[in-house]
Hints:
Chain A has 331 residues and is mostly helical. Chain A has 13 helices and 2 strands.
Amino acid sequence: MKHALTVRNIVVGALLIFLALVPIYAQTTGNIFLMTLFTRIVILAIAAVSLNLIMGFGGMVSFGHAAYLGIAGYAVGILAHEGIGSGFIQWPVALIACALFALVTGALSLRTRGVYFIMITLAFAQMIYYVGVSLDRYGADDGLTIYRRSDFAGLINLSNKTVFYYVCFVCLMGTCYLVWRIVNSRFGLVIQGARSNERRMRAIGFPTYRYRLTCYIIAGVLCGLSGILLANHTDFISPATMHWTRSGDLIVMAVLGGMGSVLGPVIGAVALLVLEEWLPHAISVVGEFVTGKPVVAAKEYWALILGPMLLLVVLFARGGIDGLLEKIRRG
Amino acid sequence: MADTLLAVEGITKRFGGVLASDAITMSVPKGELHAIIGPNGAGKTTLIGQLTGEITPNSGRIMFTGEDITGLPTHQRSMMGLARSFQITSLFQDFTALDNVALAVQAHAGHSFHFWRNARREEALRAPARAALERVGLSHRANTVIASMSHGEQRQLEIAMALATDPHMLLLDEPMAGMGPEESARMVKTLLDLKKQYTILLIEHDMEAVFALADRISVLVYGRVIATGLPDEIRANADVRQAYLGEQEAVAING
């Protein structure tokens, strides 16, 4: 039943094939913008998938997940700024920094539940945001330009757009596969059990706290990978990367795409970011058609359309877009 | 007593001005089915909370297999072989029956820091889980998601969850709660079977079931044990009839 050619599997398969072919399409049409957009989408999809590991599967709704984008980004940026350009140093340092931040904040946050957990994760992310703002040596508010992308001793050239895209794509696929393995492993079942009924988990003998904390750290490290790629993609890091609205975007991606599956957030990331780009155009085209003259101001109001769309998904499709696709099969 | 499995020694628990447990002392020898009865608000839930470690008593201590477990967290008590079922069905709703029970097996099969292998394909977890389902007569429902199981089946599954942890003792918190006569009869049958193998502490409202199953009965009223004894002694005890059973039920039991 699981391997059947359902509508959902076909759509998801088509999406993945499309993602794999973006550079080829961009090269043949010369559409650099599409390439840049989808590199960003693939990178943020990694962050959304990592968030969904704790949020969708673990029931830990973190409102500070963008902190890891910033921490990893600053690790790369600061090391580059100080003359250490090697990816073999930058990447591990960035991931370890994320793991440590997750360990400390998770150890405290996971003692709370529900809305308190949401608030405390937000508070930690805000703290690290203001740490970024106060880093005078590294650009403070204005951010830090990264003049050279991570260097892998000539093995991989991240400055090549196509190579970089495929590095991101492989990282996304690797992350999804890893999360999928974790979710179905003993560890993953414990995490999902703790989301579903923590009291029962303790009663049957699980010390849930240490499993939840481990899961929280894994998610932080995976999001760190996304942060490393994002900093390399934009050649720039600033506190804005870890603004709380970015954490909100990641939650929206997971909810919109569907929290029930590993690939749901990938669908969500594509949907949200494509809509974000496309809606302003659509609005101005429709506006021009209706009023007969260019309506520049209307472009600003794309969120007015995205908002209700999101509301509809939350209200009527609890499993997100992925859940909707699943339902088509059942008729 | 050398063969005492569970001994409660004068535990007291206050919630503000309410004395929910008032110096409760009782012991359950190995192999016994001990029932606790009492009217609503007698402190049965508080007592079971203290036995499982969800509530810490203000004073007194709890001994299990000769060790003081008063300060142990819930999961360690489970590791020692003290298993419980819940009064309000408390299962993993989006898992299948077999998944639920396998998770209980997994809790007692070493640590769960295994991130790679598919746990649903591990025979070492699935086989004992299937055995536990068989024990409560739910084999045919193994792959059914909890949400689509009947109330009675879910109650049976509650028991299977406790069995899967390979316990020395079962704490059963109102296993017949909300059941019809037919389902209750099936549960009594299951418990009669389990009684041969396990020491059981049974908290139950269904008097017919209690008197059919229990070796000994303790009566809890306002946080105090007012009587402990054989079923016949409890039936005949004037205090119990006065304080708890009431005229109508006393007639029913004797009749």
